[in-house]
Amino acid sequence: MIKPSRWFALLAATLLLPAAAAFAAELQAGRDYTPVEPPLYASKGKIEVVEFFSYACPHCNEFHPLLDAWAAKLPKDVVLRRVPITFHRLPWERLSRIYYALDALGEAERLSGAVFKAIHEERANFNSDEAVVAWAVKNGLDGKKFGDVLASFSVQSKVAQADQESGRARIQGVPALVVDGRWLLVNQAAGTNAELIKRVDQLIDKARKEKKGR
User: Fold this and answer.
1) Per-residue model confidence as pLDDT tens for the chain (214 residues)
2) Quick one: which of 113, 209, 97, 93 has its CA closest to 154?
3) Which residues, including other chains, have CB under 8 Å from residue 195's CB and lie 6 or more apart?
4) Tally of domains in the chain
């Protein structure tokens, strides 16, 4: 028979378990994410998730389908913005221009996966704008229109702005995720891509609660 004092101790321990688990699961600054100071510009009225990436990055290639599936189910108060960066590598500059050209033509969502596949599976060599335009034509785009946008000043400016933004966020590697312009997730702390997505959701919930004043 359990003594009353022992029974109350067991009950107290049982009641504390959920709270302790929640505390243990709470993400911590400096361990699970790094505060971004000053915060990045965020979409007005939305909780913005920014993915810094490059088509050349094999980890981004692996992460892309998972992030796409997650983005397809976003609630109305959350928006995903993708930012292709170069780390000042000339070959990556062209890849960044590919994303912004596709985005300008409304084709980024449809063809980003195809760009990753071309580079990492088909071993396509995008060593010139002509090679990129030839690939675009094979994927159903107007070559003249795509080529003009790819070489445009507007796209070049966006590439420069993307690198400036990654510098402000102190991005050291990709893929890198910033939530609400304020929190850069630490990939190593997450361990897996699936866990990284879960942590994005946790920070979205944190941002949502703060916006409600809770």
Assistant:
1) 545 455 444 444 445 444 433 434 799 999 999 999 999 986 778 999 999 999 999 999 999 999 999 999 999 999 999 999 999 999 999 999 999 999 999 999 999 999 999 999 999 999 999 999 999 999 999 999 999 999 999 999 999 999 999 999 999 999 999 999 999 999 999 999 999 999 999 999 999 999 887 5
2) 97
3) none
4) 1
In the structure encoding, which two tokens stand for residue 25, read together? 């699961």
CA–CA distance, 49 with 164 (Å, rounded to integer): 17
Domain that holds residue 61: 28-211
Q: How many CB atoms lie within 10 A of CB 205?
A: 12
Task: Centre a 10 Å sphere on the Cβ of residue 1 and count the other Cβ atoms it contains.
Answer: 5
Q: What is the CATH number of the domain that holds 152?
A: 3.40.30.10
Burial of 145 (0-12, 13-18, 19+ CB in 10 A): middle
